[in-house]
Every structure is written in C-alpha cells, then in structure tokens.
Amino acid sequence: MTVHDPIKAAAQKARAAIPDDNAMLRAAAEMSRDYAVANPRIYWPDMLASALVGWAALGGAMLVKDAAVAIGCAIVAMMALYRAASFIHELTHIRKGALPGFRFGWNLIVGIPLMIPSFLYEGVHTQHHARTRYGTADDPEYLPLALMKPWSLPLFIVVAALAPVGLILRFGVLTPLSLLIPPLRRKVVAELSALSINPAYRRRAPEGDFARMWHWQEAGACVFALALVGSVFAFGWKPLLVYMGVHSAMTVINQLRTLVAHLWENEGEAMTVTAQYLDSVNVPPPGYLPALWAPVGLRYHALHHLLPSVPYHALGKAHVRLMATLTADSPYHKGNYAGMLPLVGKIARSTMTAR
C-alpha cells in the first residue's frame, strides 16, 4: 500500500533525520514553562457550554417538525458536540490534580453519551507523542497516508462515517459478550479499545487505578448503547437516526481534521523532534474556519507536538511569541498552513504517485 521507490525511500529517510533546530527547541521549552498551567475558569465553562448547546440542539433536531429548523438544530448540535468531544485530547495531557473532577465530569456529560469514554484515548495518545514512536509502526495514531494508494483517502473518511454503528456494536454487544467469553475479552481490549488509526496497534490490558476507571466508563457506555437501541421501542426510529446522523457527521469532520493534522510522509523511520514538527500542521489565524473544524487548540497541532503539556487556551499566545521570536529561516515558520483544502490537495497529489 505504500511507496517502495528507492529514491523516494531515501528521501523519506533524509526527512526523518532532519537535524533538530536547537533555537526552536529552546524557545519551545521556555514556552512550556511560561504557559503550562491549565485554567479551570476556561476549561469548565467552555466544556459545559459546548455540551449544553450541543445536547439542547440535538433535542431540538429530534423534536422539531419543521425540516429546515431541524436541520439547523442538527448542524448546531454537531459543531457544539464536536467541540465538547475534542476535550478528550486535553484529558490525555492534563497534569494529575490540575483540574479536579474534570475527567469525571467530561465522561459523564460528553464521553459516555457519545460512547467515546476517555479510556479509549488515555494511555494511547501519549504514545503518539513518544520521541521514538512517532511515525513508526508502534505509533497508534500514524499511517503513511501520503504514501498510500489514492483510494485509501476516501476509505479513511468512509470508515469514520460508520463510527456510531461501530461504537454501538463495541459497547452494546461486544462488552457484555466479552465478559462471558474470556478470549473475546482479550481481543476486545487489545484491538477494539483505542481511538487509533493504525490497524496493527494492539493495546495492553489496563492495571490498577486506570483499570478501575476503564471499567466504570465502559459500563456506562454499555448501558448507554443498550438504552439508545432500546429507545426505538419507546420513541420510534427518528431520535436514534438523528443521534447517529449527528454523531456520524461529527466524526467525519474530526477524521478530515485528522487527515490534515500531519503530512503523513514518514514510513516507519524514527524521527527527530524537528522532523516530527515539520510532518505536523498548524493552521493559525487569520483564518476563522479552522477554529470550527480544529477546535480546542487543535489548529496548533504542530505546535502541540513541541509543547504537549501546554493547555489549549495558551497555544495561540505561544504561537504568536514563537513567530515573533524565531528568525525567518526557523523551521517553525514551515509548519504553518492556510487551511484544510490545500492540505487535502497536497496529500491527495502525493498518493497519486504512490506505487
């Protein structure tokens, strides 16, 4: 599925071995010290308001009879719940004790009702940031998409559209069955318990406090999935279909965001930090649309790989300082792009030359 041209393979190795830019890394380290504190007065209102607007709009889409109003409610619900769901990324980086109760609150209000409890991401996403894992076969969140066949890109999006069906099967069917069948349980834990895009990734069984957190979150998602399917008998098909349509659209947008979060040009080589940055993408202002399709700081994805401990609300400030501080020839300036469409076009053109 990926390129095997010797010349291109040599070019990929050269990109992976790009020397680290010490000036950029020193400046990033300074930003980490200055902006590392997560502000609960930003996190809580943002997450709660997004969830409240999202669930209220979803209810409107289910109940309103006027088609145009219902569609409008569904769009609002999708965007608001997408923003609320994006806080799962912050949960993986928040220091222990920094935001008391936030993880529990997010799971109760957002994660379980969307069947994406945080255990699916916690302990997984941090491996994507590991210095020796990024872009390798051990990275759960990396595929050399730019080097794969052209049909791989639409398939990447279509799979995301089916996410709500897959989540209902995962939690409503496989969770209870796996409790009765130990071999199935091992398979579910290893292969169906991570929000990853690498099909070869296998997860270890949880232990200790994380295992206890995993269990109650999984139980909650299981109950919700069963209740969601059971709602058909009480309320008919419309609420379920509206929920799944909004969920599917939300997941597709996130998958498109994922598609342009990196350039996906590495084929398994361990990369320097600077090479990892250059394989990642910032979509900074002045554009406004990235704030919608890459919310909660995700528009600064390349910067996030330099500053994984910096909370989302400080990334914009850190970006402005780095742009002003670093010289024009710094690699930092090469990680900034104008928007989604040029990036999709760049990756699509790259797939056209894959062998």
From TrEMBL:
<dbReference type="InterPro" id="IPR005804">
    <property type="entry name" value="FA_desaturase_dom"/>
</dbReference>
<protein>
    <submittedName>
        <fullName>Fatty acid desaturase family protein</fullName>
    </submittedName>
</protein>
<feature type="transmembrane region" description="Helical">
    <location>
        <begin position="219"/>
        <end position="237"/>
    </location>
</feature>
<keyword id="KW-0472">Membrane</keyword>
<keyword id="KW-1133">Transmembrane helix</keyword>
<feature type="transmembrane region" description="Helical">
    <location>
        <begin position="151"/>
        <end position="177"/>
    </location>
</feature>
<feature type="transmembrane region" description="Helical">
    <location>
        <begin position="104"/>
        <end position="121"/>
    </location>
</feature>
<keyword id="KW-0812">Transmembrane</keyword>
<dbReference type="Pfam" id="PF00487">
    <property type="entry name" value="FA_desaturase"/>
</dbReference>
<feature type="transmembrane region" description="Helical">
    <location>
        <begin position="67"/>
        <end position="84"/>
    </location>
</feature>
<feature type="domain" description="Fatty acid desaturase">
    <location>
        <begin position="69"/>
        <end position="333"/>
    </location>
</feature>
<feature type="transmembrane region" description="Helical">
    <location>
        <begin position="42"/>
        <end position="61"/>
    </location>
</feature>
